[in-house]
Amino acid sequence: MTPPKAPDSELDSLVVIESTVPAAAPASASATGRSPASPSASGASLLSDRLETLRLDPSMRGHSGGKLLLMWLLVLLLGVGAAIANDRGHLGPRLRPFLAARWASLTAGAPANTPTPTVIAPDNAVVDTEPSGLTTTGYIVARKVVHISARVPGVIVDLPVEEGDVVEHGGLIARLDNARFRADLMQAKAKVAETEAYYAQLSAGARQEEINRARAVLDASKSDAVLAQQEKKRAEGLRGVDPEADYERAMANFSRTQAVEQQASFALDLLKAGARSEELLAAKAAIAQAQGALAKAQVLYDATEIVAPERGTVLTRSVEIGQGVQAELGGPPICVLADLSQLEAEVDVAERELNKIGLEQTCEITTEAYADRVYRGVVRWISSSVNRQKGSVAVKIRIDNPDGFLLPQMNCTVVFQDTKPTTPAEPAPGATPETTAQSAR
To answer: What's the pTM value of the predicted model, to 2 decimals?
Structure first.
């Protein structure tokens, strides 16, 4: 019997059927009536006996030949299917038992001398074993995603970014109409200037010219008071001679000049003393109030220019030039910004498989779009609660070697390595997702 030829490929090596072909035995010496022609007759007789044992029973030639051929073809097709399934889903180990059972059922009634197929697995095939490590599916997501919204209402007048653009930190994303906010800013600046000038005036006190004028007024009032006093004395001496009205007039004029002199003296003293401390405090408060209004007006004016809070890629843009936007959460975001240099895989792990994973456990990530590219990852976060509806636990895997082929929301497959880290999967009591994530960084 000729030994089977070495398999040329993995597919050829999966199923090799060793079969024997019946051959016609040479006629014996007794049938021909000839005697053995050489001393090798005993060897020829032994070969004839072996070939005779390989001859099929004549009763099976009409019925079993076609059945055996069909049986061999069926086994070959099942072997090819097992090889394909082994490559795509590790289903080969599951199909091989079915193949053996099928072969046994087909050969149950075959004669004892029916050849039996021999299944030969390649060296790198996994036979009767499950895939190593836990495998699950999920999505690629950006770790940092920012929804950019307007802080003030307005109409968009400039929109320099498109989807897919990379925006640097502080780069312009959109500009709103700022006419109203610019007017409010100018008014606030003027109010600050007014209050500051008033405080400076109070702090400096009266000018020397004002003091000199007050002193002159006081001197004039003193002169009037001296004259009024002289007229008062003369009216008292002529009282009873001159009419009584002259006396009363002189007395009233004297009292008036005395009051004017006293008023001029007080005014001069106030100018010399300067502003009171309470007035200075009130002026300072007015300045602070004006400065607060100015700061608010400046913030609103600056908010008309919407800039990137950090470097990232524009994933989506939902507005156009001329479109009005609302402040904060009053409308859709202007755009969504993400840092594609920090990507991770989000997967759900069945609750029964939770004991197979832990923080800092290494993983391999592949995507459907680029199945030949394998990315390294590390478990950085495990949820502290189980999703009761799904019966699973959310897990995030940090991708250590992202590239331009990975995009957010891609389908991915994550294979957890067999080596489980010493860090337990269960968070510490009282731990939150944020603290758990920080411990995994």
So the answer is: 0.53
